[in-house]
Design goal:
Helix content: over 70%
CATH class: Mainly Alpha
Strand order of the largest sheet: 1-2
Structural class: mainly alpha
Largest sheet: 2 strands, antiparallel
CATH topology: Vanadium-containing Chloroperoxidase, domain 2
Number of strands: 2
Radius of gyration: 22 Å
Strand content: under 5%
Length: 213
């Protein structure tokens, strides 16, 4: 497709390519802004959060606590949250990462202080699996247990921000990861709602039939 830029020069670049390039520039600009923001007091806490979130450890710990110390509803929510993580991990780490092989940020070149660094993953950068799993668990469990909604979402947001702060992801990786995780978490919770309602309805029908007998 032939287009004309602001200087009047004709270009054969496709519009979606130009848009993607501009988004990439904006993404790197925000990444640099975070890197340039001097907050040494946050270095250790956010490194710790980022490392602890490897392999979805915070969410499995939270699920285990809900199952161990809660009732039936908490156990259902815990199982749903773990299921949401599994679904999200598959979607993000298979089709999405394979379809868009974005390289990890170059931390020295883009100015991320070494005091913030965590181990750079070997997988591709887009989207952020940590952010996706965090959002999936927070949204799924928060849907079923409204009282946990804001604590879990705050924890998920801290994990997501830590991935940019430590330099292992661009902001766009985190935003898309969290969006995908949130959508899949909500879908998983709705499926759980449907299954539970059907079981309750069947139990009520069976009880009514027993009374009629």
């Amino acid at each position: 497709m032939i287009a004309t830029d602001l200087t009047g020069v004709r270009s054969t670049e496709r519009p979606h390519v130009a848009i993607r390039r501009e988004l990439g520039r904006a993404d790197r600009a925000v990444y640099r802004a975070v890197a340039d923001f001097s907050t040494p007091v946050l270095d250790l806490p956010l490194r710790t959060i980022s490392d602890f979130a490897n392999h979805s450890k915070p969410w499995f710990v939270a699920a285990a606590a809900l199952a161990a110390f809660g009732g039936r509803q908490e156990r259902i929510a815990a199982l749903t949250g773990v299921g949401a993580i599994g679904l999200t991990s598959f979607v993000v780490n298979q089709p999405m990462k394979l379809a868009r092989r974005r390289e990890r940020p170059d931390r020295p070149l883009l100015g991320v202080p070494e005091s913030r660094w965590v181990l750079m993953p070997t997988s591709t950068s887009f989207p952020s699996g940590h952010s996706a799993s965090a959002a999936a668990f927070a949204v799924a469990v928060g849907h079923l247990l409204p009282g946990t909604r804001w604590p879990l979402r705050s924890a998920a947001a801290a994990v997501a921000f830590s991935r940019v702060y430590t330099g292992v992801h661009y902001p766009g990786d985190v935003i898309i990861g969290a969006a995908v995780g949130g959508l899949l978490g909500a879908a998983t919770a709705r499926i759980t709602d449907l299954v539970v309602r059907r079981r309750v309805a069947r139990s009520a029908s069976a009880a009514d039939a027993g009374r009629l007998d």
